[in-house]
Amino acid sequence: MTAGDRRRAGADGNGFETLAIHAGQEPDPATGAVVPPIYQVSTYAQDGVGGTRGGYEYSRTANPTRTALEDCLAALEGGARALAFASGMAAEDCLLRTICRPGDHVLIPHDAYGGTFRLFDKILSSWQLSYQPVAVSDPQAVKHALAGRPARAVWVETPTNPLLSIVDIAAIAQLCSDAGALLVVDNTFASPYLQNPLALGADVVIHSTTKYLGGHSDVLGGAAVVADPALGEALAFAQNATGGVAGPFDSWLTLRGIRTLAVRMDRHSQNAARVADMLAAHPAVAAVLYPGLPGHPGHETAAKQMRGFGGMVSFRVRGGAEAAVAVCGRTRLFTLGESLGGVESLIEHPARMTHASAAGSPLEVPADLVRLSVGIESGDDLLEDLRQALR
Ligand SMILES: Cc1ncc(COP(=O)(O)O)c(C=O)c1O
Prior knowledge:
About 40% of the residues lie in helices and about 15% in strands. It is an alpha/beta fold. The strands form two sheets. It has a seven-stranded mixed sheet, with helices on both faces. Strands 8-9-12-11-10 form a five-stranded mixed sheet.
């Protein structure tokens, strides 16, 4: 079966859980292996010059294990094509250098992953790509910014890292379409199980597959999924030309994680909702940022565009920065560390860890903020761990 056949096999109306297990993952035609093999290979025999078997000639251009992952991702996001990269940042960089040219302008969120800001601020700015931070949770602010200066693209995250703000994807997609800008949605926090931005009008979905898609904190990866096949071609060309591809073993691990994404996300969301409720009633906590809480400013939009509210919870600690840092040091089950989306719970202090690169910028995060990646351990144990850390 060729890569193209496998891509089409996903688009047959099956449910999410079925696609996660089967899209791009037909039993191996040669052996019947039910899991796509790890094609740990760089090059492929040709039957005469140009006579490739299934289109494979060199693994930077395409590799069957990566094709399986890409076809699955395209099916899960409802895209025309997905490309799998070595990391989320590799996907972001390749996408931006595919869709933008020096001199272009991009709107970015006020509130986003610090590494995304660093890419715009420290790398692509010297490529003459200008950026403007905008409160993308407010469609009026986006409309105003687009009217002020034409933008090639609007970049949003929803929910955002680490403040869990919500962006109305359909509303921003309409504004982008009116203004001739592409809408890119970083869907890392929600995962395709909870939210499908392309169905809401976005042009591109970005993932750090390192997070919920991989799901086990054992692999780095990234993906870009596009609605337009022509953009998919351009991105594949740039990916091959620049080379930041996902390797075969990393693709295999990510695909292995994806098969259980639905059940994991349900449990992440359940545990996170319990954690958010407990924290909201705790005297040591000044504010809880979780889109599942009815008082969250984005709650209604999240309820409209997400299938659940996800596993990420942030909160502000009474007592300021030092108190927040101290809480991070006292948990026993929540491991102090960067990253998120794995089965195990993690805790971190964004201002000094994941978002240190945004210090002094419009994307700086509050110093009293703690971010939790709520895992799928027993909910009671997680609540008890946080209670003792806040005591
Ligand atoms: C929302 C978001 N986007 C992108 C990235 C970058 O992904 P990676 O670390 O896989 O390069 C991260 C990493 O934490 C992230 O949280």
